[in-house]
Amino acid sequence: METPPFNPEPTRMMTRSVLAEIPTRLGRLSMTDPNNGLGRNDHHLNIIMNTTISNYPTSMMTPSPSPDELIIQQRGRRKIPVTFSPDIDAIKQNNQETPTKSGCSNFKSSIVLRSTPRKRLLLNDPLELSSPDKYKIGSPSCKKLRTEVAVELPEDNCLLSALKSLSPDQLIGIIGQIVIDHPSIEKEIRSHFPVADLKPLEERIYYLRRNIYKALPSSRLISKTDPTAYNRVSTHVLAFKKCVVDQGRRLVESNQWPIVMDYVFMAWKHVRNTPIWDNPAHNAARRQCFKSLSGQCITALKHMKDSMNQQSCDNYKNQLKLLVDDSEDIEWCLHFLNIRE
């Protein structure tokens, strides 16, 4: 059986007929209205939109603002305060509080805006802050009071060796108690009372002065009196000043006026050898030392005016003349000695 030959003609005719309709349809879509120059489809679209818009109510075309927008509008323009933190009391008096949604009758909402600034956190027990005495270290509740308890020394222990372990205040307390119990011993103590030794005091002052120079820069290319160098030794300078002032004050309290004068001349020599800084403000410690020694000197001279002989007066005057160039305060001492003559 023979198969009939394939005839493509019907297929070609069907394809051509479909393609032939496309230009016609495209032409219909591009047809224009000669009256207004718009396409037919655009004209129908404008008619539909105009009809739809005219059917909507006016309230839908202009929607009302949200509750938050109404609140923002009621606040008005923001006023910049004069200070960083505005005065809360003044704002309350002027009734310039932030409006809340509760004032809007048209909106019902459970959200309420804050009308006052954020408050500080409160501690659970604020009463504890008002009683700082409870936390003091020296209060009886935190530390038991120490009581002086007498220690029985063994018979084979030397009394002089045991006294070396006591502080100066303890030694003063022991001697004072013995004098109170046995008043006759006071005369014997006065007869054996030695002259105060200034050597330990001078060694302490020299040690602190040496620390100042040891802390200075060692390079020759760097200044040793500029502010940078002072910052390196400022701690040692303050320690030196404190030592000079405190040791002189203790001697003044002991009422040993000749020893006070000897200490003034000794300490003045060490204060003079301290560095002189480029910034005048950094020489404040040096000036305070001179002023303190001058005050101790005039105090000693006033207490010795009745017991000082002419030879001692001339000796002090010659020594004080050498100190005038360092501080003007020493002139009061010279003036007092000149009046005494």
Structural account:
Pfam families: Cut8. It is found in: Nucleus. Its main location: nucleus. By secondary structure, the chain is mainly alpha-helical. The protein has helices spanning 9-29, 40-55, 58-61, 67-75, 88-93, 159-163, 168-181, 185-191, 199-215, 227-253, 257-272, 284-303, 310-321, 331-340. The model is unreliable at 29-38, 101-113 and 115-147 (pLDDT under 50).
H/E topology pattern: HHHHHHHHHHHHHH
Number of helices: 14
Instruction: Please tally the β strands and state the result.
Output: 0
* Fraction in beta strands: under 5%
Please describe the biggest sheet, giving its number of strands, its sense, and whether it closes into a barrel: none
DSSP helix fraction: 40-55%
Return Rg in Å. 51 Å
Low-confidence stretches: 29-38, 101-113, 115-147
Which structural class best describes the helix and strand composition? mainly alpha
N- and C-termini, Cα separation? 168 Å
Question: What is the 3D form?
Answer: elongated
* Mean pLDDT over the full residue set: 74
Family: Belongs to the cut8/STS1 family.
InterPro entries: Cut8/Sts1_fam, Cut8/Sts1_sf
GO cellular component, one term: nuclear membrane
Main location: nucleus
